[in-house]
Specification:
Blueprint (H helix, E strand, L loop, with lengths): L1 H40 L2 E2 L7 E2 L3 H8 L1 H35 L3 H15 L2 H12 L5 H7 L12 H29 L3 H9 L4 H12 L1 H16 L3 H6 L11 H11 L3 H29 L1
Antiparallel strand pairs: 1-2
Helix pairs in contact: 1-13, 2-13, 3-7, 3-10, 4-7, 10-13, 12-13
Amino acid sequence: MKKSKLTRDGRQAIYGMLYILPSFLIIMVFCIISIALAAYFSFTNYNLYNAPEFVGLNNYVNVFKSGTFYAALTNTVKYVIVVVPLQTILALLLAVFIAEKMRNRYGSFLRSVIFIPFIVSSIAASAVWKVIFKTKGGILNVALGLFGIDEVNWLGAKTLAFVCVCIVTIWKNVGYYMVIYYAGVMGISLEQKEAAIVDGANAWQRFWRITLPSLKPITYMIITLGVISSFQIFDIVYQLTGGGPGTSTITLAYMVYTYAFSNQKLGYASAIAMVLLVIVLLIHWIQNAFFKEKE
């Protein structure tokens, strides 16, 4: 019996390893090995055609001397500061509203409509929004013209271009985070809410004292995912503004792409990517420490 049990346990362990093997290989090839190669190339002069030439810390020195790097870093940080809180708050409010006020087929339909932008390709969605924001003949300017408002150069003005990138990102991501929040809201015990109603708590007090604290682990996850994805923003910027006008919407991820594939400076681009990785890990560590302290 003991031998049979050990054999069965061993067989289950083998089955488990086989199940996770595909995911493990994907993570190894596209994450761990890629990060290791980027770290190696960051110390070299490499242009995709010639053999890498070791240059030590020169790439990192040039990165921190570059004005474009600081512009991209500033834009990325501003982007995170604007997008993450807005999409988190909006997703939470939508989830609570649908869960509390629309527990019917209309609520299911509304959830689906809000979620659809998330599954649409970012490049395709940005192309549509580019037509909407177009100065001459753009849908938004045509609509404004009906009210006698002059044309607005949405993607040609620095501040407005940055705002447009944020709007498209929030529009695309909010449905995904709303669905996560919705699942959390639906998992809150009805007994707690009913007890609060009996005690005379109004809707705002129930939200502040019951719903929000219960969703704290989900909020931590959503903020973490939002920060990481915001630091990696590339496709919307690439399609919508191309980093312009000037450097007003350039981000670190877009800068990595530009230097790696447009300027053929893979070593320099790898150094930027490693700096971005360190920044993301540092912010995640700070977030983790902050939420643990609150708990």
